[in-house]
Specification:
Order of helices and strands of chain B: EEEHHEEHEHEHEHHEHEHHEEEEHHHH
Structural class of chain B: alpha/beta
Strand content of chain B: 15-25%
Structural class of chain A: alpha+beta
Strand content of chain A: 15-25%
Oligomer: heterodimer
Strand order of the largest sheet of chain A: 5-4-10-11
Number of domains of chain A: 2
Number of helices of chain B: 14
Largest sheet of chain B: 11 strands, mixed
Shape of chain A: globular
Distance between the termini of chain A: 54 Å
């Protein structure tokens, strides 16, 4: 047995398994799952099926082993009879009528569903087993739409071929307990894979997310004070000069704001610590 | 075996394995044999750092979860009203001195009942829960107060959207059939004081005229036991040197249909009469363990066995509850005397030591702060050196202030047994704790 095993709830709650860094604890994590600051959860889906490598957020095949190499560039359109994408429907323009949202680069209006949801059912019932996987017969650089039911008269009749591939379980199995462990199976994500493709918050992602995601941990309106009219006055956090005090909207071109290049080259030099909402020296 | 060797850990052997309790968070672990033996050996040495080094190595270090800071201005959550400071029984050991708390027999006036209930709801915000209990003396000697208090509480509960629960502790001699309907309607937790089978109960709980009370109590309570749905009827046994045969008592009361049966040792009586001493506490521990073993047998076999001390211990150990105070007394829970004086709890009614203001002016926050600072378990001797300090949390304030701590070995012995029993039950009956079975057939 293990040297030590937490038994009651308080022991389990505070237990830190060997090897997990502090950033894995809920209280120290930002915990957005992708692209992620601690890990990129989507990287799980690369190796969901034995023999092929999938794009983490698309049904596009990016790698294959042995005879499955031929599938690279094809799309996995159904798993166990279930489509991996949906058609996006809505107005093209504000106030317009709802229609399939097609474009030159997406003629079917197909959007691959996020894998953890679209595969939940299959994973729950058939992990570890061979499941029928339906691929486009030809390479498909652009998204392809099929329906859940190939017998449906509206199904676009894309030419496909079916391969029986083994669906890998997400969790490792304990040989002793004959039960799953709270650990990700190594063949699903090898060392380092979960921490690929992380955010670069200071150089890029804080700016990209504007004030939608990061405001809690990084104020984007700083040195704020009430003025004589009772309105607030302050600086946009990326303003090169702090006078005059005004909020400059970020259109990506305004030279009064730091550029991406500034940030990528010297974010730690250009940005200041903000303490209590104000620049600190 | 349960003696405190080190305040930072306690080692336990059970048939289910080797266990480690860390008081900081009351975290319970299983250990393998070499680790257990290394800790055991370290406890035996004079090198104070060796235990700490081993714990560090196990990666179980954690900043203290219980701070030195006393609880500050806790919101009021529960009041017990001494609606009748008088009693028709003459139990020799009664902390309330036959109901009158050393004063004159009196009833709580209706105005005081209503003021108390208003105080209970005054600062409660929607969604918070409050409890109103009726004690005495014998509370059923002032039925009007119980009815008036309950009616107002129900009204305020609806108006303020603050759910309320009711409880009453009674000697059972005055319960009438219509009381059963009233308790059922309002979902009362009814606790009946019963000290054992008839001969021993009659010896300990006679009427003031010296007659036994058992037969009338059972006759009155039987209809409640038969009809309880929303109301829950429990038996509470005060253990003295005269009723140490706990197992037959427990089985008799469980057989009668009580939803819960619990034992409390008598550690303090105003005259000193019938208090348990060290030899009696030893006997009581053996009896408690015998009851606990029966509980384990029943749970393993899939039956209910409502032995309250064990049910509570299993629940709290499983959660890892850790607290700096033994109960809510003087914090979220206060007692009210018939005169409307607030006290740290029902036992401190009329006692200057636990005075906490009154129902008109409200809680005396200064007195309360002093009480909470004083009663924090870190301030208690020898608790601050004991592994059980966040499980027992220093013991009943009233008993400790009036008598001291004669029962530490008993309490630790009981907790040690409970930890072993938990170690066994969580393996054999994980579902009792809401844990899915450890071994399932693989889904993949």
């Amino acid at each position: 047995m293990k040297r030590i095993d937490p038994k009651n709830l308080s022991a389990q709650l505070h237990y830190r398994a060997a090897g997990n860094p502090p950033s894995t604890l809920p209280e120290s994590a930002i915990s957005n799952c992708f692209p992620g600051l601690e890990f990129d959860f989507r990287n799980l889906w690369h190796h969901l099926f034995e023999g092929i490598e999938l794009h983490e957020a698309d049904n596009y095949v990016v790698g294959g082993e042995g005879e499955l190499q031929g599938l690279v560039g094809h799309r996995l359109v159904r798993v166990a009879g279930q489509a991996t994408m949906k058609q996006a429907i809505g107005p093209q323009m504000p106030g317009g009528r709802s229609d399939v949202l097609t474009s030159a680069s997406n003629p079917g209006g197909a959007w691959t569903m996020e894998w953890s949801n679209s595969m939940a059912n299959v994973l729950h019932q058939r992990a570890g087993q061979k499941v029928p996987c339906e691929f486009t017969k030809d390479k498909a650089p652009l998204p392809v739409w099929v329906s859940d039911d190939p017998e449906n008269p509206e199904d676009p009749k894309v030419e496909t071929e079916i391969r029986e591939l083994t669906l890998r379980p997400i969790f490792a199995q304990s040989k002793v307990l004959q039960d799953r462990l709270a650990v990700i199976e190594e063949r699903i994500a090898g060392a380092g894979e979960l921490t690929e493709s992380l955010c670069s918050p200071w150089q890029n992602d804080y700016r990209e997310c504007a004030c939608y995601y990061w405001a809690a941990s990084r104020p984007d309106y700083v040195n704020v004070e009430p003025n004589e009219q009772g309105l607030s006055e302050g600086n946009m956090w990326l303003a090169v000069h702090r006078e005059p005090k005004e909020y400059i909207p970020d259109n990506g071109r305004d030279t009064r704001l730091l550029t991406y290049e500034d940030l990528f080259r010297d974010w730690q030099g250009k940005l200041k610590f903000i303490v209590g909402g104000k620049d600190s020296d | 075996m349960s003696k405190p060797a080190n305040p930072d850990l306690h080692l336990i052997r059970s048939e289910a394995g080797l266990h480690l309790l860390l008081p900081n968070g009351n975290r319970l672990f299983d250990l393998d044999e070499p680790t257990f033996e290394a800790l055991e050996a370290a406890l035996g040495t004079s090198d104070a750092g060796s235990v700490q080094r081993l714990l560090n190595d196990l990666g179980v270090d954690l900043a203290p979860l219980i701070s030195e800071e006393p609880l500050k201005d806790p919101p009021l959550r529960a009041l017990s009203l001494a609606v009748a400071q008088k009693c028709n029984l003459g139990c020799t050991y009664c902390y309330a001195q036959q109901g009158e708390f050393g004063g004159l027999a009196k009833n709580m006036p209706l105005a005081t009942v209503l003021e108390s209930v208003n105080l209970l709801f005054r600062d409660a915000t929607p969604g918070e829960r409050v409890n109103l209990s009726f004690l005495g003396g014998e509370p059923l000697m002032n039925r009007r107060a119980i009815h008036a208090g309950t009616a107002l509480a129900e009204e305020l509960s609806k108006e303020k959207r603050v759910p309320v629960t009711f409880s009453i502790t009674t000697n059972g001699t005055l319960i009438k059939p219509e009381d059963a309907d009233f308790f059922e309607e309002h979902g009362f937790a009814v606790t009946v004081s019963l000290d054992g089978p008839q001969p021993v109960h009659d010896l300990l709980r006679p009427t003031k005229g010296g007659r036994g009370s058992f037969d009338s109590v059972i006759a009155n309570v039987t209809p409640l036991l038969a009809t309880q749905r929303r109301m829950q009827v429990s038996a509470r046994v005060t253990v003295t040197p005269h009723n140490l045969g706990l197992k037959p008592t427990l089985d008799e009361f469980v057989g009668l249909g009580f939803r819960s049966v619990g034992f409390s040792p008598l550690l303090r009586s105003p005259s000193g009469r019938d208090e348990l001493g060290v030899p009696e506490l030893k006997l009581m521990l053996e009896q408690m363990v015998a009851c606990g073993e029966e509980f384990e047998r029943c749970i393993k076999a899939g039956y209910r066995y409502p032995f309250a001390n064990m049910v509570n211990a299993m629940r709290e150990i499983h959660k890892g509850t850790h607290r700096p105070y033994p109960c809510g007394a003087g914090a979220g829970y206060l007692g009210v005397s018939a005169d409307g004086e607030l006290a740290a709890c029902h036992r401190f009614v009329g006692d200057e030591e636990g005075a906490m203001g009154n129902v008109i002016t409200g809680v005396n926050r200064q007195r309360q702060a002093a009480w909470l600072a004083e009663r924090h378990v870190h301030r208690q001797e020898p608790c601050n050196r004991c592994w059980a300090r966040y499980l027992c949390s220093g013991g009943c304030h009233h008993e400790v202030i009036r008598r001291g701590r004669p029962a530490c070995d008993y309490i630790r012995g009981w907790l040690h047994y409970c930890l072993q029993a938990y170690g066994r039950l969580v393996v054999t009956r994980p579902e009792y704790f809401g844990v899915p079975g450890a071994v399932t057939t693989g889904t993949h």
